[in-house]
Predict the structure.
Amino acid sequence: MTAEPSIVRPPAAAPDERGGTRRDQPRRGRPPARNEIVRNGRIGGLEPEHLAGRFGTPFYAYDFGVVTGQVNELRGILPPAFELAYAVKANPALAVVNHLAGLGLGADVASGGELALAIRAGMPPAEIVMTGPGKRDTELAAAVRSGIRAVTVESRGELARLEGLAAEAGAVVPVLLRAAVPAAVGLERVRLVGDDGAGKFGMDATDLEVAAAIADRSPHLDLLGIHAFGASNVVDADVLGDHVDRTIEAACRLAARVGFDLRLIDVGGGLGIPYEPDDRALDLTALEARLAAAGARLARSPATRATRVLMEPGRFLLGSAGAYVARVVDRKVVDGTHVVILDGGIHHVLRPALVGQEHRIRVLGAGGPKAFPVTIAGPLCSGLDILVAQAVMAPPGVGDLVAVLDVGAYGFTESMPLFLSHPVPPEIAILDGEAALIRRRIEPEAWLEGQAVPPWHAGAQGV
Ligand SMILES: Cc1ncc(COP(=O)(O)O)c(C=O)c1O
């Protein structure tokens, strides 16, 4: 699970006549246009009703042009020593990973399943790093077999298991050692819900040094450097810059103390995006200056002149490229509260309930003539299934389409699609005015396949 920001509810909004919430409008000046999938009521430039007719609702759509734009923006600010590996966990759709492989990015995978997916999507194994606590032997063995760029080791125990598997395979495995951020690199914490993982990520400074010495001596391990993930959804360039600086300093100190050749420093992901209308966007110009300074420091020292720095963004590349589109099936007023019920909800977009973060919602169509507070909910028998509560907007009517924005990262993949046996939405990619199905809808009947009534039950059916 990614660390996520706690919600800060925007100030109470006033009615607005345009079919959006007043919170959609800037309070001071006009913010720069966002690179996002829904523009002028169209989805990736296409007519929403046309997409809904072709693919059915609800559905997820990703604008690959927006993804490419985000990649280009980020690449544009990186110094020469820096590289990008896409954090597959943000959106593991095969087509998404394939698109990013096509743009020349590497991948950060967090499981054997993601490793297999990234390779199938066309990522060269030499561009894949594997990170995450609790890697099973089968997953480590797959990483050894595949010849990936680096396995990020999270504990001394995992290091020993990896070394054993590498020895069995007669291989030499490149490794990064994951530093537990508060102890090892002293990142100033950004207050996030569940951000520190209570010690589950990485090693403290003592273990890190012991592990580095072991890895450095092992004939089956090739110690490249360290990995440190700071915090997720950070929109403050200085917080990100500080994390990069501290990770680089920690890596240099460790390499000097243990005496290994520092070739790779993985600073993780965490680049944030605005979710709510008044949220700040990451200042890429400020980040560029911080990264340039870090790159220059590395270039100045003979020991680090050839050291590469890997960033693992997920959210920044995919977040605004995705929308979840659902249709209004009911509308009512309950004790004065206007409620709109969609044919999809938090079983497909869990994030609002999971981290208390509201996403912007767009009515794709005219909406009603008057704006007033409206709650938009899904069809689940759960009070948690609320996408926005009391948002001031011109409400959609039954049959209208609405889009939940900024769900390209940690949207579908972080949800719970089996809850209440509704269909699982299809995923659609859009590029240059063309839409393609990249994952088909799953009807509930399909889940019955693979299920069985136990054999002791009269009339039992096998799997
Ligand atoms: C190890 C690692 N790398 C990269 C990421 C991607 O982070 P983000 O999507 O915030 O950029 C994560 C997210 O949890 C992570 O755990």
